[in-house]
Amino acid sequence: MLAQRLCCPKHCQSCSNFGVASSSSGCLCPPGFGGSNCSEPACGGTIFDGSSRTLASATSGGFPNLTASDCSCSSGWTGTGCNVCSTSSACQTAWTAVNGNASVSDGIAAASGVNDTLVCNTQPTVYAAGELSCQVNNPTLQSLFPLQSDLNILRTYNSSLSPLQNASGTLLSPNGSSAAYAQLFYAGVEQFSCTASPCTQSTSSGTDSWTCSNLQCACFEGTAFCGGVPSLNLNGTINTLSGTLTISCDSSNTCHFQQEVLNNLFGSSGLALQGCVFGECVSQAVIDSSNTNSTSSGGSSSQLSGGVIAGLAVVGVLLGAGIIAIIWGSFLQRAARNKPFDGGAAGGISVRWSDVSYFIPPSGALGRSIFSRRRETNGEKTILDGVSGSIGPGMLMAILGPSGAGKTTLVELIAGKAKSGLSTGAISFPPLPTGKRPRVAFVPQTDVLPVFLTVREALVFAASLRLPESLSEERKVAIVDAVIEKLGLEGVAETRIGATDGTGRGISGGEARRVSIGLELVGCPDILVCDEPTSGLDSVSAWRVVSVLREVARGGGGLFGAIDGEKNNGRGVAVICSVHQPSSRLYHAFDSVVLLAHGRALYSGPGGLAPAQHFKAIRDAEVAQDSASEIPEYGEGYNVADYLLEIASIAPVGLFSSSRVMESNINESQDLSGPSTSPTADEKPVSGADVEALSSRSKPSQSDYATTFFTQFLVLCGREWKIIRRDKTLFLTHVAAASILGVFCGGLYFHTGITIAGFQSRVGCLFFLGSLTAFSSLSALYNVVEVRSLFVRERSNSYYSPTAWLLSRILFDVIPLRVLPTIIVSTITYWMAGLSPEASRFFKFLLILVLYTLAMTLWNFLLATSFRNGGIAILISALSALYQMTYAGFFVHLTSIPPVLRWLQWLCPLKFCLEALSVNEVGSGLMIEDTLQGVPISISATVIMELLFGFDPNAYYRDVLVLFAFIAGLGVLVIGMVWYKVREQR
């Protein structure tokens, strides 16, 4: 038994009930106790009698028993042990009986001349030192201990203000500070006592709370609670009670005795006390003085909890960061728009490529410098081998050759596209100095277009991001109109593009080709490169496309001048096209031709009949040497393109050396007859540096973008908003599914009970919502896979930063398709299932599910950006959802998992989600009321939660932080993956 001890030279005195030993009077005891060691409760009399008060006698069990002693209270006194006053006259009579006519103010801190009438305060609020006595009401305790249990509590706020300080042998606090003393009686016998100090008192919403530190409790061994019944021995539990004690009482005479262990056993409200009576004998002057101080201080105000403050701080920081980002972005945007427009001239640039080779290393070979010049292959596959050529501004070039000749590879290298192989040679752009890049536009072989935008909207989108911000919106719109006119798209300008694979209605294939070209033309390029622009088109559509390209070559760079009314000032644009098998009409539309075979150039020079004449001369030379020629003879009227492809298919070895000599002569004459594009000494390519400079376009920096980040984000958001408005299918499906599943889940768990089985159903309901969130976020993965090709094309052309695209995707995917459906299904289920009715609990519930939704969305974004194959990403996502369900703690108790696998729980977001949801639910004070083998129990749901699932009842805010960490970590990984993996690689 814990007792206070004061050891003196002559003796050492031990005191029960946390009394204090005194050399003069044995032990100083809390009011209502006496005897040599404070172990005997008072029987009758009043608290002013002090050490002379009558005490209860011991029974056959050896413990004093108030019930057996037939103790009765004097008039005006009540409660177990008769320590609680009920009338002011009782206080005055008891004071006079002990102190005579002495003033109550004598010896206490009360101002002279004030009302020192002794009164009985019967409210929960304590002014000096007040007693309360309650009946313990808990079904579980009553089933174990069926007789009456009572709890007496002395709360000392300021012992110097209490008249009891003068009572003989009485202890109000151990050292003069605020304190609390409590004793529990069962069937009239004291079972254990507790003390705590110091204490604070607060009042809020009609509830008086008494919070004390340094709680200590001690059992009376051998009593019913403490070993009298060996199978029900609570000695170990009671003696280890410590920490903070809270006693809260309201105006309905109900109190709660709260401590961490008791809260876990009996609910967040602790041990319930009913039928409480309050009584405090105190001077009216003390009450008046306390009320005056309370009024002058403006009254008490409730304080926000640490978790709420932390949450508000996080929200404040995020909002502040967002506002700062918007302000800074607006400032940069305005600064960019106020810059003077530095010219609109385009075109006038030639292209020269010299000895360009391209190799694909064998599988597993170590990467080598992309610009290392090498003739030996060492197992490498040669795609291009020493190809040279040139084209001047205003010219339209066709690159011909059979399949596998290297046409696409050559145009991609000229356009500066990222390639996975190794390349050598030099590419320059006279008259630009070495290292400076012109605006090179590339039209890929496949049309990748925004399905839900109209032709005009797609072109305006491209113009808004590819033209300088200093150019006014009116001029950008005028440029788009000019491009539409040039491409002959006036009739379909307001038509949605639709799916170009034939799965959705929209524009035709030829119109889609022209739109793809238009998307590049709105950027006013210096050079236009097209990869097989006529493939898959009928002859009429193919001719329309080639006619547009020829018109662009002649004056496509004059779009800015055309806006200003100077239509004749446009400079020519070099247009290079790989063409698979053109008709005769298409072939003769090209100004120059490059013929490839097996990665080598058989011819590079003027078009028309010049190539046929070139090969005729070679054939005639071979025949003149009396040797048979493998070059077929050209027949008059025969399609020159077919003739060239026939030669390229045969491609005799001797033809390459002959063609290389003729190619050099033809190129020289072409340069003399065409626009002056001969480079100066400084401009002549000397190494692969130009290839390197052009290839670096695949890694754009901020300076490569024509617009600021804020403009990119706004334009992307505008496009996403249009898509959502026009394609409501996915949004409506999510909302409808959320509503239906909410009603289904709510009906399945409708008004769950508060039995043990009902609590399992509550956690099952929460688990269902988490699992539903994990699987429904799969659509986020599909959405990213679906738009990946469009993003790669636009990113490769420096439309916008990957971060701007990702933010717009998150904003317009997460809010309408993730957060809103989550709120719908959660709200319906929450109230139908009868979960905690507190508004704060509901919003904390929503917070957890929204955080988990964000984490799962980012996880699926990560999978979608990590794998090109959407099937693999979906498989991994589904398997990860099953893994989370396993480690969430619902199907298997986490502590029962073998240690070698148990650590995987820390990588499971659903575990933290379910734990936080469960802790939030039981934190409302949920009590389990059930009957086990005929014994009624009433126990805190926290105990059942820990027993069945192993969740930490104090883990809510930790779980919130962990979910935030998952979101931050996955967000960083997604950004990194988008930047470094989701890029064009040809």
Provide structural commentary.
- The protein has 986 residues and is of the alpha+beta class.
- The strands form eight sheets. Strands 9, 10, 11, 12, 13, 14, 15, 16, 17, 18 and 19 form an eleven-stranded antiparallel sheet that branches.
- It contains 29 helices and 30 strands.
- The model is unreliable at 1-11, 295-302, 365-377 and 661-702 (pLDDT under 50).
- The radius of gyration is 45 Å and the shape is elongated.
Outline the biggest β-sheet. Answer: 11 strands, antiparallel
Structural class: alpha+beta
**What does the radius of gyration come to?**
45 Å
Number of E strands:
30
Low-confidence stretches: 1-11, 295-302, 365-377, 661-702
DSSP helix fraction: 40-55%
C-alpha geometry = elongated
Count of DSSP-assigned helices:
29
What would the keywords be for this entry?
986 residues; alpha+beta; eleven-stranded antiparallel sheet; six-stranded mixed sheet; 29 helices; 42% helix; 17% strand; disordered N terminus
List the helices and strands and how they pair.
Blueprint (H helix, E strand, L loop, with lengths): L3 E4 L4 E4 L4 E3 L3 E3 L4 E2 L5 E2 L35 E2 L5 E2 L2 H12 L18 E4 L7 E8 L2 H6 L4 E8 L22 E8 L2 E8 L2 E6 L2 E6 L3 E4 L4 H5 L6 H5 L5 E5 L5 E4 L1 H7 L4 E13 H13 L9 H33 L12 E10 L20 E11 L4 E5 L6 H9 L6 E7 L11 E4 L11 H12 L6 H15 L21 H13 L5 E5 L7 H17 L3 H5 L10 E5 L5 H4 L4 E6 L2 E7 L3 H15 L15 H11 L2 H21 L15 H7 L13 H18 L2 H20 L7 H21 L1 H19 L5 H32 L5 H28 L3 H18 L11 H4 L6 H14 L4 E6 L2 E6 H9 L6 H25 L6
Parallel strand pairs: 22-26, 22-27, 24-25, 25-26
Antiparallel strand pairs: 1-2, 3-4, 5-6, 7-8, 9-19, 10-11, 10-19, 11-12, 12-13, 13-16, 14-15, 15-17, 17-18, 18-19, 20-21, 20-23, 27-28, 29-30
